[in-house]
Each structure stands twice: as structure tokens, then as C-alpha cells.
Specification:
Number of helices: 8
Shape: globular
Radius of gyration: 15 Å
Number of strands: 8
Mean pLDDT: 96
Strand content: 15-25%
């Protein structure tokens, strides 16, 4: 198996699940039926930094929630797919749309519904609270939980592997 840094160096597209990855997996439902989710701002800034280096971003989520779509627009996510039951089909569509190869993609997920894509990308990532079966099929498991910095951790790993981290951090100290 290739070293993690080599897998991360190849990433041109980061694909993410939402519940349990960009959030902690809990869904709050108001009396009127509106879903509320909490997103971590550190993850958001990590995505913005990664995107500034030319890495494209995608979300493939099984649920359709207006709040998630709003967050995706706010982050400038390049490719957003909601209400998806066959993530494998959307992944094939993404490859065709971007012209990328599966080995140039990373996917971060937290459950078995993510495995059809995780098993096809060049860099499969799971969060630590994912079921053990999912973690066994990941190249890397983040130290941070979903919704608590896991995506930021992955973004920084990719930035470091691609030689962009130090330059980006230096800009904050200038």
C-alpha cells in the first residue's frame, strides 16, 4: 500500500458525506419539521484553503436538507448532490464531469453507504466513530470526530502532502 502522503498528494477532488462527517451526525428536528445541523467553522475554513490551491470540492449526501444546500453554497462547493441513494452512480457522473480519474479523488465518509465510493477512490478516509467495517476499508482514519474538525484535519493533510500548507500558513503571519 502507498504511504498516506502519496495518496493525499494525488488528490484533485475531495468528496464528502455530510451527516457524521461535516456534522456530528445528530439531526435536530423542530416542531414544524425543519432539520437543524451544526457545522464546524474550522472545517469550512479548511475547505476554503484547500479549494484555493485548485482542489475541487464535492458533497454527496443521502438526505435533502435546505440548510445543507445553503452551507454548500456558502462554502462555494463545486459539486453538490443531495438525496442520493446510489452514491456510486453520482461518483461516475463526477468523474465524467471533471475529467478526473478515480485515483485523483479522496472521499471521507462515516458509514457503509459511503463504501461504494470509498472503495473506488484513490484516497479513502473515515472518521473514528465510523463502524469498524468502514474504518477497515479506509486508507486513513482521522483523529478528529465528524463535525469536530475531521474535515479540517483531512484538508491540512492534503495541503501538506501537496506542498501548500507552509505557504498558506505563512500568509496568516505576514
Amino acid at each position: 500500500m502507498q504511504p498516506i502522503t502519496e495518496l493525499a498528494r494525488q488528490v484533485k477532488l475531495l468528496i464528502m458525506d455530510v451527516d457524521g462527517v461535516l456534522t456530528d451526525g445528530r439531526i435536530f428536528i423542530t416542531a414544524s419539521g425543519e432539520e437543524l445541523k451544526a457545522f464546524n467553522t474550522l472545517d469550512g475554513h479548511g475547505l476554503k484553503m484547500l479549494q484555493s490551491t485548485g482542489v475541487q470540492l464535492a458533497i454527496i449526501t443521502g438526505r435533502a436538507a435546505p440548510g445543507v444546500a445553503h452551507r454548500a453554497r456558502g462554502l462555494g462547493i463545486d459539486h453538490y448532490y443531495e438525496g442520493v441513494h446510489d452514491k456510486r452512480g453520482v461518483f461516475a457522473e463526477l468523474l465524467a464531469k471533471t475529467g478526473l480519474q478515480a485515483g485523483q479523488c479522496a472521499y471521507i465518509g462515516d458509514d457503509v453507504v459511503d463504501l461504494p465510493v470509498m472503495s473506488r477512490v484513490g484516497f479513502a478516509v473515515a472518521v473514528p466513530d465510523a463502524p469498524s467495517f468502514v474504518r477497515q476499508h479506509a486508507h486513513f482514519v482521522t483523529g478528529c470526530q465528524g463535525g469536530n474538525g475531521a474535515v479540517r484535519e483531512l484538508c491540512e493533510l492534503i495541503l501538506q502532502a501537496q506542498g501548500n500548507y507552509e505557504r498558506l500558513m505563512a500568509a496568516y503571519l505576514a
